[in-house]
Amino acid sequence: MMVTSPPQKWFFVSNLEERNRPSTGMRYEIQVLNSAGQAVGCGYVDDQSNTLEIDGQAIPRAVIEAAREQPVGKGDYVDELGNSVPLY
Predict the structure, then answer these.
(1) CA-to-CA distance for 83 and 45, rounded, in angstroms?
(2) DSSP summary character for residue 66
(3) Phi and psi at residue 67, to the nearest 5°
(4) Are 42 and 54 a contacting pair, CB within 8 Å?
(5) 2 within a domain of the structure (yes/no)
(6) Which of 8, 39, 41, 44 could make a disulfide contact with 54, Cβ separation 3.0–4.6 Å?
């Protein structure tokens, strides 16, 4: 019997510049990506948020923390553990 692992989950996380924030406190953007690297959902968190749900999918806390580690105006592709990954 062959055991298969669940599909890899990919995210793009960023620390938004002030002019690009949807509201004052929402500094961090998290995008859920499909297998082609395209955003299929997007959400925002502030400095205190520990949870986020995008289109019914709970975003792992490690992904939220990865967004907080980004320099202002920068972003990175990460997996569900918050580890930086080359998308392709």
Answers:
(1) 19
(2) H
(3) -65, -40
(4) yes
(5) no
(6) 41
Domain count, the chain: 1
In the structure encoding, which two tokens stand for residue 66, read together? Answer: 């990865």
Handedness of CA 6, 77, 39, 43 (dihedral sign): positive
Q: What's the count of helices (H) and strands (E) in the chain, helices before strands?
A: 1, 6
- Token pair for 20: 């690009």
The domain of 35 spans 10-79
pLDDT digit string, tens, across residues 23-52: 989 999 999 999 889 999 999 999 999 999
Tens of pLDDT, residues 5-16: 555 899 999 999
Q: Nearest 5°: phi and psi at 18?
A: -55, -40
The answer to whether 49 touches 42, Cβ cutoff 8 Å, is no
**pLDDT confidence tier of residue 1, bands split at 50, 70 and 90:** low
